[in-house]
Design goal:
The protein is 30% helix and 26% strand. By secondary structure, it is an alpha/beta fold. It has 2 domains: 47-191, 3-Layer(aba) Sandwich (Rossmann fold), CATH 3.40.50; 193-417, Rossmann fold, CATH 3.40.50.12780. The two termini are 30 Å apart.
């Protein structure tokens, strides 16, 4: 079992009363009203604008008949509206389902049916896909399309009084879907406390400070939405979220926005490394590159080429991050770091029995505090089946004598495409 690394960061460490959208976003909007919180696919949104638009989205959802506990599916490309309605749903106690933007047909039907979505926020490209399955979704009552449709509902919502729902720390706030490597994708039930705890851990690992900029192209429908959106929000920083990942232009975009950090998948870093060397590589404003897995053979070469430190993490939608190597940690190239203070971590055999250090087996974790990992999987009746006390990840790994975790492979056959596991 990994050594105790202390208690996880909590709301008081960031000067807020609780890990909720209203307390964090409202506090930062009061402090930094004109600072850009996010530049999303080229659209700048300040902290105060995000607060107002999230409130407008909340009121718009109320107008659609959405109430606490109801589900709103977010099914768009990377765009500001995705974030407005994600944060807006939180304001009224609704649950936002982050649906993979590539879904269509039975895959889309499965996600919308499992989440029991009453409304879908989508765009013109994906609207026909929703229309194809809508008749098979009796609970679906509203489809709102990016463009004039969304602009209209946001304008109506902006004129209404501020909506607010005071919920419980254990309330489900968002659903994120697994990659489906062992069957149909599961809907992972997450609380806002879990999402903000994840963001707090990641912000600390990055050493991100107020006013600093993070660049990323990770899709919002991944759990990566938590650190990419919420970590800068927590510290008063800025996220530059690109609509797509184009290796040839990434570093020009990083220079243009002065980003101190790059967050992406390990495959993205590999593609960047294959770009022709540029004399300006070592003069990038970057302080860190956050990605995993990073091969030990190129770990130090990356740091030298780009003049920064590597931050690595291991985890999944259900529990993230399970292991962390922060910017201030020396780390061991090829490993994912040591156990996150929120978890106990061990390696087990096929029967679930612990294995000694240095043995390859399945990675398992146990939360040490309430609501610092997901609550479980949504079942077909609309409830949530909780995880067992020791959550088995389905990944093979090894722990060394110093508590460093190394990811080895999936237990079952799968491949990775654009950072996603596919059976």
């Amino acid at each position: 079992m990994c050594a105790d690394r202390g208690e996880p960061l909590g709301p008081s460490d960031f000067g807020v009363d609780s890990f909720t959208v209203s307390t964090v976003l409202d506090r930062r909007a009061e402090q930094y009203p004109d600072r850009v919180l996010m530049s999303i696919a080229g659209t700048d949104v300040t902290f105060e604008q995000m607060r107002r638009r999230a409130l407008a989205a909340a009121n718009a959802l109320l107008d659609m008949g959405i109430r606490p506990g109801d589900c709103v599916a977010l099914f768009t490309a990377t765009c500001p509206e995705w974030v407005y309605f994600w944060l807006g749903a939180a304001r009224i106690g609704a649950v936002a389902a982050a649906v993979n933007a590539a879904n269509k047909g039975d895959f889309l039907l499965h996600a919308l049916r499992l989440s029991r979505a009453k409304a879908v926020i989508t765009d013109t490209e994906r609207q026909p896909r929703v229309a194809e399955v809508a008749e098979r979704l009796p609970e679906l009552s509203s489809i709102v399309v990016q463009g004039d449709s969304i602009a209209e509902v946001l304008n109506r919502g902006a004129a209404a009084s501020a909506a607010e729902h005071v919920g419980d720390v254990a309330d489900i706030g968002s659903l994120f879907f697994t990659s489906g490597t062992t069957g149909p994708s599961k809907a992972v039930a997450t609380t806002w406390h879990y999402l903000f705890t994840t963001a707090a851990t990641v912000a600390s690992a990055w050493g991100l400070r107020p006013g600093e900029v993070l660049w990323t192209a990770m899709p919002l429908f991944h759990l990566s939405a938590a650190p990419s959106v919420l970590a800068p929000m927590l510290v008063g920083g800025t996220t530059v979220l690109a609509s797509a990942f184009h290796p040839a232009s990434v570093w020009d975009e990083v220079r243009a926005c002065g980003a101190v950090g790059f967050a992406g998948a390990g495959a993205m870093v590999s593609m960047l490394l294959r770009q022709p060397p540029d004399p300006r590589d070592a003069q990038l404003p970057l302080r860190f590159i956050s990605a995993a897995p990073i091969a030990a053979s190129v770990y130090r070469d990356i740091e030298k080429r780009y003049g920064c430190r590597i931050v690595t993490m291991y985890g999944m939608t259900e529990a993230f991050p399970i292991a962390v190597k922060g910017i201030a940690d020396e780390g061991v190239p090829g490993t994912s770091g040591e156990a996150n203070p929120s978890f106990d971590v061990r390696i087990v055999d096929s029967a679930g029995e612990p294995l000694p250090d240095g043995s390859v087996g399945e990675i398992a974790c146990r939360s040490r505090y309430p609501h610092v990992m997901s609550e479980g999987y949504v079942n077909g009746e609309g409830g949530v089946d909780p995880h067992p006390p020791w959550f088995r990840t389905g990944d093979l790994g090894v722990l060394d004598g110093d508590g460093n975790l190394t990811y080895v492979d999936r237990v079952k056959d799968s491949l990775r495409r654009r950072g996603e596991n596919i059976s």
